[in-house]
Structure to design on (838 residues):
């Protein structure tokens, strides 16, 4: 089976001058990969006709599919549609259904339709129009010399909708794609290079059809096995067997044997045990609560949080006595322990996580340098504390503290509740 | 003056299969742009020798500077260094200073140095080694046929350090760069296309040396003027004059006339007035507290938050009477108002923000569909409420609710405190 390959061309000066972080390409890459299409190259070019034409010519030489995002919006710097007309020898015409969509969206918002919004309904006359249910700019599908092209708006939720609803089904209809099998696991508390040592022999022994990827993120590593083949059922079985081997090798540090985040793993664990949790956050400033509540259904397990940035908040809301804070300091094992037990009581939960630390750039001292974080986890019958020392910038220290605190709770729940 | 252009080549399968979001390129683009280098193209390729060589050849044809990131790490899929050796006709040799650095880092962490970590100290013998103070993989600087190349590790904080400390100074020493002047302002509460209408004549009248960029993000738009010229002082003056014109046109919706975020603008405003703030967050789940506390120095203004996910938390910690919740519902003007006044009292602040809503995907009803959010802001003498209706997914609804709540507070403070 011939490998089907794709390229992404993202268009916009804002990507080149770094004003926008390109999250679209990651999503498109994931979806293509899951569908069995190998994304061979991603290119970002500015809002310049020559650059766009050059990228289209280059990428269509090497690939079967070219996905174009960005530059379909209403502002003046958008020149993607005229460039596409040049490339495909097309002219712009008004698409009636797209026009109806634009008008409806503005009516619903109670806003007048202005000239530049109407232009969103103009499309090259040689394309198949992909109607956009989430916004005003339609997607455009072209075919030329055995290569297919899909041009999508750059607004992430519009792009995602069009890709999943229209582009992927059209790609599946147009190409014969291999079967793909993925299995992912999540590891916490062990670095990428240490894991690599532990599983070196396993990795070397993998057959060519199964690949291993390391996906490091804050304080965690995801390991993903990807198999590609012609027969879906036997491929699934092969990947599953290798995945079991891998799980056995990293069992000690494995947080989840599926592609979920640590907050999801913690919520699932508590849900399964019928337990609730609260947080008392000083240095993490609500980051743990934010992570947990970003997951739908968190309210079944998470009662709430106290972000006790001031010492008065620790005393008033969490019942930490003022003397403890004066005597040991806000960043201390004693204070963070009382914050955790206080949060359990104040928010009426089975478990609580508390954090107190110095995130930087200011506030460090020789005894408690920037990056010092005390974490406590409290349960119905016991309490556990841990001191972390991070050495990064404020943003990263906060992320690491939040992730490590969640993992401390996870281990504590597993060990005190039994598995 | 000849324009100096650059390309970024990011290397790694993880970027193509979408497992990593490329934040490095945005940072590099910003820094190059500030230095007067035009980033012409960004390319991402997989961990494949041919692909890397092809990208190097292509990008060096069109550009003066090629920045390469990724693929210098310790795991087996890293093949960047061998590919660079091929391209530059070099061989790998151990660099003594890099080796000392690797050993020191592992000693400090109390971990054994393993074989694959030692390989991090190997460098092509034709390069200038850029020592890495933040990690084990050094940066590599090459020159060939009037093009300069810098290969940097993909770990963001290591890449940033090497770029700022070593690569940019070397680029400034190597090329004659134009003067660059930037001015940015932040707008809330007005969409990109409406702003575009309002400033259409201004934009058309801009001289070719000054460009305007729209940088939309959740609920906000940043407008940035960038001027490029030979004489720094007159350029600054030209851009400043245009910026004053622009400010006058969008004054009504302008949050800040500098490149700061909304949370930063809110903290600065409260700091200037000597006031404090707290949040009582139901549907935003700590997102507002997280935004405020991500900024260094937030503790001077922000006392804390109650994330009242359960109704008991609203009653116990914020003093919302149970009857109000039963009678009007948790998502109601009445409940959110009491949450705001309760947070002011509980956290002893001048101001408080409260949020309660339905973020989805579940929990909506015909009267209160998903996306319904009540926000209240309370001050020493008055209270203001606003009902928002968002229509996106959970993540985006939370972001929008948090941003809009902060902006509601900002306007409330300005109007009640006087400007």
């Amino acid at each position: 089976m011939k490998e089907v390959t794709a390229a992404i061309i993202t268009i916009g000066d804002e990507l080149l001058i770094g004003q926008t972080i390109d999250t679209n390409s990651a999503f498109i890459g994931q979806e293509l990969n899951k569908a069995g299409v190998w994304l061979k190259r991603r290119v970002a070019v500015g809002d310049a006709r020559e650059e766009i034409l050059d990228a289209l010519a280059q990428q269509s030489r090497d690939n079967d599919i070219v996905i174009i995002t960005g530059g379909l919006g209403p502002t003046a710097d958008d020149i993607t549609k005229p460039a596409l007309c040049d490339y495909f020898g097309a002219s712009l015409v008004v698409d009636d259904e797209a026009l109806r969509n634009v008008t409806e969206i503005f009516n619903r918002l109670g806003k007048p339709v202005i000239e530049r919004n109407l232009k969103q309904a103009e499309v090259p006359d040689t394309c198949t129009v992909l109607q956009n249910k989430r916004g005003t700019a339609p997607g455009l599908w072209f075919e030329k010399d055995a290569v297919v092209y899909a041009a999508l708006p750059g607004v992430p939720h519009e792009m995602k909708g069009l890709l999943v609803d229209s582009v992927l089904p059209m790609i599946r209809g147009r190409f014969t794609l291999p079967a793909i099998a993925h299995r992912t696991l999540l590891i916490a508390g062990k670095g990428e290079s240490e894991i690599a040592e532990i599983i070196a022999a396993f990795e070397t022994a993998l057959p060519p059809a199964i690949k291993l990827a390391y996906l490091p993120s804050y304080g965690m590593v995801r390991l993903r096995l990807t198999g590609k083949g012609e027969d879906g059922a036997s491929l699934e079985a092969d990947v599953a067997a290798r995945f079991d081997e891998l799980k056995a090798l990293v069992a000690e540090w494995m947080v989840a044997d599926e592609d979920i985040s640590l907050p999801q793993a913690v919520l699932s664990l508590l849900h399964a045990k019928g337990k609730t949790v609260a947080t008392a956050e000083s240095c993490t400033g609500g980051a743990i609560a934010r992570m947990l509540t970003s997951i739908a259904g968190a309210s079944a397990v998470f009662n709430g949080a106290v972000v006790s940035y001031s010492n008065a908040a620790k005393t008033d809301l969490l019942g930490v006595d003022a003397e403890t804070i004066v005597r040991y300091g806000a960043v201390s094992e004693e204070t963070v322990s009382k914050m955790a037990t206080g949060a359990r009581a104040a928010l009426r939960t089975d478990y609580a996580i508390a954090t107190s630390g110095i995130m930087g750039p200011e506030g460090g001292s020789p005894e408690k340098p920037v990056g010092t974080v005390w974490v406590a986890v409290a349960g119905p019958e016991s309490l556990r504390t841990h001191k972390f020392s991070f050495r990064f910038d404020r943003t990263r220290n906060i992320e690491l503290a939040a992730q490590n605190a969640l993992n401390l709770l996870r281990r504590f729940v597993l060990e005190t509740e039994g598995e």
